[in-house]
Amino acid sequence: xxxDPSAGGGPITGINVTPLVDITLVLLIIFMVTARLxxxxxALLVDLPGAATGERVQEIFGLVLHAxxxxxxxxxxxxxxxxxxxxxxxxxRDLGDLRAVINAEAGVSHGRVMNVLDLxxxxxxxxxGFGVVPLPDPPRPR
Length: 142
What we know:
Blueprint: H1 18-34, E1 59-65, E2 71-73, E3 76-78, H2 81-95, E4 98-104, H3 110-122, E5 127-130
Helix pairs in contact: 2-3
């Protein structure tokens, strides 16, 4: 006598991949959201060849706040907050989709970082990140 598999007592003859697909999609979303923005502070000057086709890459507006009060914008020392604001507005106008990364030394006050953040927002830059150096993993107990 053959059992009806739909009755619940029959053997499972197929694998349900729905949970596997769900988990895979969730992991993909997590990786996409937590992907790190890699910003290089050093660059090599190269003479790139021209091409008829190609797309613009996303520009990064990199600020470095030093503990002694100095501010560098893409490697150039800035004299005042107004100079930063002017450069940020010009970059936003010229480039459109612009990301800013603030790299502040540990000794920089919170107020100074917030001031620079406010300057960038006044210039119309809304995609702002903060550069960090990853800490080493703590030793695991044996």
